[in-house]
Amino acid sequence: MKYLTFLSKIAFIFFISFGLSVKSFAGNGVVVKTTNYLFNGSSGEKTKSGSSTMYMTSQKLMIKQEESDGKSTTIIFNSTKNEMILFLNSQEYIVLDEKEMAVIKQQLAGMREMMEKMRANMTEEQKKMMDKNFPGSGQKVTTSYEKGGSKTINGWNSSKYSALQNGTKVSELYIASYGALGVSQSDFAVMKSMMEFFRKHLADFSNQFGMGGDASSFMALSGDNPAFNAGVPVKITAFSAGRAISDTIIDSVEKKAINESLFTIPSHMKRKDLAQMMQGGFR
After folding, report:
1. What range does the domain containing 217 cover?
2. From CA 274, how far away is CA 280, in angstroms rounded?
3. What is the pTM of this model?
4. pLDDT at position 96, please?
5. 21, 56, 213, 261: least CB-packed within 10 angstroms?
6. Which residues of the chain have pLDDT under 50?
7. Overall number of domains in the chain
């Protein structure tokens, strides 16, 4: 399912960016660095899997994620245009705007209908296998949050929220209040715009398909998500099948002048048509 993998990748970048902004935007901009970790399934040992750097101004942001295997992903979001640019590689990019997201939603509706028809003709064993691979295929995914406990993350007092999908924990979010961080919610204009962009267009994706692990905790994008209302996630732990599988933790925040060229697409890169990519199986 290359299509689902593609959307999951987009959403995972959004998830990584979710816990980044933790200082006032006084001055030209802010640069934030995070580290991503994976847990070993048998030993529980945590190892570094990559890192992310975000450059943010009042209306634009750029996120570059570097993975330990050498792969990298870059996105640029422009709140004035309400569009996101995703670099597919060093030579090609796509643009996700209102028009393109409408295309994605249409494709999702078609995939949902197809999966429902397939499910109707399956045996119980086949249905269980389908539900394992696509947790939301048999029922609507309902997300809820439970608050409990607190922890200091890199000097910030934070409250712990557990995100549950259909009663199963998919993530823990450690959220510091805006006041504790010395900021107000209005400082997050561009991030709020990006969150609303994804919330508007991808909430149906979460409800229709469900996603385990890293993706599930942010793909819910529900209105009661504490990351929208309570403050800023300074640590996010993703769970799958009852065990922690990854951590995203803020490392450093630096206020500095940001060159506008960071938000410009290099002249050698070519735009790919999303509709054609979908028809060609995302090749």
Report:
1. 2-279
2. 10
3. 0.74
4. 87
5. 261
6. 1-9, 12, 16, 18-27, 209-221
7. 1
